[in-house]
Specification:
The protein has 310 residues and is α/β, with parallel strands linked by helices. It is built from twelve helices and eight strands. It is globular and about 50 Å long.
């Protein structure tokens, strides 16, 4: 999908984030959405999703998605990179996009939750003013209450350093269960399939993202959080997960939804972790209804599916 506009956003530490805009360039801030991508993938992989969301939201809406550091056309990850870097970049992106709605997928969901918490708790009035009207995360990859096993991260780093990228990706699949099929396949098979993906460009993977992936996964999962840490998130928070997402993502979503007052928990029928950015399983429809403050019961999913929209 071709974006309506491409922008370069300057960060406070003199780096650049490449951003892409879809929909109405003249949209009011209250109708602007900012998407924070997951691990490994550049913003343009999310282009079909951003474009579809802009169309579903209708006239007068715009959707922004940006390359996080180390991906696409944004500045590389440097030695001082940390989760603080990502949170600061979210603040920059909110300020320069003027977006009132913040959406995060997978690792981007974890970054979004930490960033909104930072903004809401800040003593800086300019930062507090950036708190979005709505916060939405789908399958946030966040280490809540020590629920996530981080013991495999050093092995992941070693495999990347040795150039064993198929094995490294297989390790991520095994522990995050991002693919309901691959996560149950033998490790040698997964490594082979993902190595082929790297060579052929499938799934948007490229070798260039791996240094950033080591840094971002280590930073995100090393930041152990308590569910109660997010109890102060502003109202209008939506926690989404897929009906067929890995148990880790479903459990994390429910834990967070229980901890955040007035949060809406949405279990997307037939949804998997890759439903974003793959534009599948009603994700765009339900997200658009939520952002427009419409009842999710308006989705034409059939009586059985509607019961799963909690």
């Amino acid at each position: 999908m071709t974006p309506e506009a491409t922008e370069d956003w300057d960060t406070p530490d003199h780096r650049v984030l490449r951003a892409y805009a879809f929909g109405d360039a003249d949209a009011e801030p209250s109708r602007r959405v900012l998407i924070v991508c997951g691990a490994f993938l550049p913003a343009l992989v999310y282009a079909p999703f951003a474009s579809a969301l802009a169309r579903e939201l209708g006239d007068g809406w715009s959707v922004y998605v940006y390359d996080r550091r180390g991906k696409g056309q944004s500045s590389p990850v440097e030695s001082d990179y940390s989760l603080e870097t990502e949170k600061s970049d979210v603040a920059t992106a909110l300020r320069l996009s003027s977006a009132a709605h913040l959406v995060g997928h997978s690792l981007g969901g974890a970054i979004v939750l930490h960033a909104v918490r930072m903004l809401a708790d800040s003593e800086d009035e300019e930062l507090r003013a950036l708190v979005p009207q709505t916060t939405t995360v789908y399958d946030p990859a966040i280490n809540v209450d020590g629920s996530f096993d981080t013991s495999w991260l050093p092995t992941f780093r070693e495999q990347v350093e040795r150039g064993q990228l198929g094995r490294a990706l297989a390790l991520v699949e095994r522990h995050l269960g991002m693919s309901p099929t691959l996560s149950h396949a033998p490790n040698w098979m997964v490594a082979g399939i993902l190595a082929l993906s790297l060579r052929t460009g499938l799934r948007g993977f490229t070798r260039s993202v791996f240094p950033a992936a080591v840094a971002e996964l280590t930073a995100a999962f090393a930041e152990e959080a308590r569910a109660s840490d997010f109890a102060g998130l502003p109202a209008r928070t939506c926690i989404m997960t897929g009906e067929h997402s890995a148990e880790y993502f479903q459990a994390t979503a429910r834990t967070l939804a229980d901890a955040v007052p007035d949060a809406r928990l949405v279990v997307s029928p037939k949804g998997v972790h890759g439903s974003v950015p793959a534009v599948r399983h009603y994700i765009v429809d339900s997200l658009a209804l939520w952002l427009r403050d419409r009842p999710l019961g308006g989705l034409d999913l059939g009586p059985d599916a509607l019961q799963k929209l909690v």
